[in-house]
């Protein structure tokens, strides 16, 4: 059930013929990307404006293809590579486009507020899941996935709470589908509320699951929204470490019963071992490093625009791959209680985020 974008690959360097196995999937993603850019150009030619940018169009085309056709084995490696590695490189490159002025403007109150939103959302989402009768582990997965960073949070939290692999797969698949829906709906929501670029970027960073999805959701509002969304989202991602630490300490006190026997659990000590790579992904470190280099003037001004264009292209290719990994039919198979828990948790997170915007007087 898990999305294609979240299958693990062995090290590409040590695999013979790995590049050849990547070509079909990457070629498919590039083809979808080409069509997305062509449709964006057609919008400009017809109405003088792109109502749907290539980022979003690529997801739609990919998801539409996936709904009618399931890519065979020969396509998998390239699609996974595009969705994961190209995406991570794109996020790193975006560090060169972030203005230090935005960071200074954020200030301590917003940083504290982000932590408060994450903590409150986890508690509220967990309560919703339990009220709907979900098992403790499933409720925790949904709460952490919704409140922090979607699939990455689910992957990091799963071994800490001894989660069942079926619950993990269902949570990841559902998050992939709902994440695409949020990318479409949130800009319309922001338009209705009349939010500024800073306010909408903050809202996107607080509510959208994955870093690239924040970019896709914020792009229609403008570069200021993208920059603010990225900063808020990165702070939100960094909350994953403290949350996993708290859960690792709380698990022995939770009524979780006998740990399930699956790949996430081998024995009690290893079940709660925290994977540092999940808590602080390498691309977050890379993004931060490039942001610091930009702040110190180590990135030539002439290089900033080309780096931004490369990042955008890689992101669109990744969006195509993510779309190809989304099976919309997963929602129908998820069950009413899980569906209700995820949707209500997301609505609760949106409400909490809007409360923070009002409290900090972000227009």
Automatic annotation (TrEMBL):
Pfam family, one: Cons_hypoth698
Residues that span the membrane, as ranges: 18-38, 44-65, 85-104, 110-132, 139-162, 168-193, 200-222, 234-256, 276-297, 303-326, 338-362
Compartments it resides in: Cell membrane
Record's keyword annotation contains Cytoplasm: no
Recorded superkingdom: Bacteria
Family: Belongs to the UPF0324 family.
Record-given protein name: Putative sulfate exporter family transporter
Source species: Acetobacter oryzoeni
Higher taxonomy: Bacteria, Pseudomonadati, Pseudomonadota, Alphaproteobacteria, Acetobacterales
């Amino acid at each position: 059930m898990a999305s294609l974008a979240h299958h693990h690959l062995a090290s590409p360097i040590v695999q013979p013929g790995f590049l050849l196995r990547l070509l079909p999937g990457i070629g498919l993603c590039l083809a979808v990307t080409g069509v997305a850019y062509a449709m964006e150009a057609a919008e400009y030619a017809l109405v003088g404006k792109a109502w749907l940018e290539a980022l979003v169009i690529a997801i739609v085309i990919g998801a539409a293809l996936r709904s009618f056709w399931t890519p065979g084995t020969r396509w998998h490696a390239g699609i996974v590579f595009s969705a994961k590695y190209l995406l991570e490189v794109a996020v790193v490159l975006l560090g060169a486009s972030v203005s230090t002025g935005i960071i200074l403007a954020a200030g301590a109150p917003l940083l504290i507020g982000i932590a408060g939103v994450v903590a409150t959302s986890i508690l509220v989402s967990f309560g919703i899941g339990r009220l709907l009768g979900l098992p403790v582990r499933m409720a925790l997965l949904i709460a952490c996935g919704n409140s922090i960073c979607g699939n990455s949070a689910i992957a990091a939290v799963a071994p800490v709470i001894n989660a069942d692999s079926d619950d993990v797969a269902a949570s990841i698949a559902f998050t992939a589908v709902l994440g695409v829906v949020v990318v479409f709906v949130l800009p319309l929501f922001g338009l209705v509320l009349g939010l500024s670029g800073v306010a909408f970027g903050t809202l996107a960073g607080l509510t959208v699951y994955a870093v690239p999805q924040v970019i896709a959701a914020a792009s229609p509002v403008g570069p200021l929204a993208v920059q603010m969304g990225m900063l808020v989202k990165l702070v939100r991602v960094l909350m994953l470490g403290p949350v996993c630490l708290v859960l690792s300490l709380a698990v022995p006190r939770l009524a979780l019963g006998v740990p399930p026997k699956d790949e996430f659990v081998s024995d009690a000590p290893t079940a709660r071992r925290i994977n540092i790579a999940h808590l602080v992904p390498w691309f977050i470190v890379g993004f931060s490093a490039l942001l610091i280099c930009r702040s110190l003037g180590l990135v030539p001004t002439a290089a900033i625009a080309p780096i931004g264009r490369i990042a955008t292209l890689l992101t669109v290719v990744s969006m195509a791959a993510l779309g190809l990994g989304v099976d919309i039919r997963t929602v129908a198979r998820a069950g009413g209680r899980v569906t209700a828990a995820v949707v209500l948790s997301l609505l609760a997170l949106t409400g909490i985020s809007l409360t923070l915007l009002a409290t900090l007087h972000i227009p």
